[in-house]
Amino acid sequence: MSARHGKRVPLDRPGRVVADEGAQHACIVRDISAAGARLLLPEAGHVPETFTLSLDPGGDPWTCRVVWRSLGEIGVRFN
Fold first, then answer.
1. Which of 25, 32, 39, 76 could be 17's S-S partner, Cβ–Cβ 3.0 to 4.6 Å?
2. H-only helix segments in 1-79
3. Tens digits of per-residue pLDDT, 22-64?
4. Global model pTM greater than 0.90
5. How far is residue 57 CA from its own chain's centroid?
6. Which domains are assigned to the chain?
């Protein structure tokens, strides 16, 4: 995993993970930076390596790549 780029800012805001095949998962964006975010996501093991993330309600989407996974959380890098 590469070093973080930019300071992480606590957020704790609802978001939505949308996979290419259309599967959606609700999440909480715990913190965010210009380069990526940490997501609280009970289905962390079922999320594909790349997906689209948006903040609820109706935030602009980011294309993301998973850089780490743990029980109930994932770290993503914005593409």
1. 25
2. none
3. 889 999 999 999 999 999 999 888 899 999 999 998 889 999 9
4. no
5. 15
6. 9-78 (2.40.10.220)
